[in-house]
Amino acid sequence: MIRLIVVRHGYTVTNATRRYTGQLDAPLTAEGEAQAQRLAAYLATHEKIDAIYASDLSRALNTAAPTSAHFGLEITPMPELREIDVGEWTGMPFEEVDRGYKAHPQLLEDITYPYPGGESFYDLFVRTEKALQKIVAENEGRTVMIVTHAGGVRCISCMAAGDSYTMARKHPAIANTAMDIYHYENGKLTQVAHEVKEHLEAKK
């Protein structure tokens, strides 16, 4: 069996300013850095991490860094774990993008329809699935931390539920540095905990 701890990266400047981040390399805020430290402290007490994989964007790598330091592990960066590429909407305020959906209603109706100049949610699902397949192939019997983004969290949740990829966008995201925990055994992915965030609720 493989234990997978799927983490959404820490709070970023674009989270704070309510902008679409996509594959923009937005840095963590001071709050996001503190979340990453609290995450590492929690995992040090509750888990024995054997391997760490992360999106190659700095917000994911920097979220993983304190845990990496505690367990003495290298982080394996994976571009396949990046957030969806929202193309022309990268860095735009939520309100402005909401107006953009009116010009591209297919985005809400068809998961294979791409963001202008970017990817579709189906593209994200396919590369997240490939990343997960690679990770489980390399880590039998281990506990693995995976640091990704809201879109990747949704895709992995969809896979575990056995839902069609068409449902991926409807699966819930989780709070920054919260965790979804899965077991992978005999080719089956099972979610055993959703949005674990005790470390975020602890006294700062």
Question: How are the elements arranged and paired?
Answer:
Elements: E1 2-8, H1 13-16, H2 30-46, E2 51-55, H3 58-71, E3 75-78, H4 94-103, H5 106-109, H6 121-138, E4 143-148, H7 150-161, E5 179-185, E6 188-196, H8 198-201
Parallel strand pairs: 1-4, 2-3, 2-4
Antiparallel strand pairs: 1-5, 5-6
Helix pairs in contact: 2-3, 6-7
How would you characterize the overall build of this protein?
The chain is α/β, with parallel strands linked by helices. The protein has a single domain (2-201), classed as 3-Layer(aba) Sandwich (Rossmann fold). It has helices at residues 13-16, 30-46, 58-71, 94-103, 106-109, 121-138, 150-161, 198-201; strands at 2-8, 51-55, 75-78, 143-148, 179-185, 188-196. A 6-stranded mixed beta sheet has the order 3-2-4-1-5-6, sandwiched between helices. Strand 5 (179-185) and strand 6 (188-196) form a beta hairpin. The longest helix is centred in the middle third of the chain and has 18 residues, at 121-138.
Quick overview:
The protein is of the alpha/beta class. It is 41% helix and 19% strand. The longest helix has 18 residues, at 121-138.
Could you list some keywords that capture this structure?
41% helix, alpha/beta, 204 residues, six-stranded mixed β-sheet, Rossmann fold, 8 helices
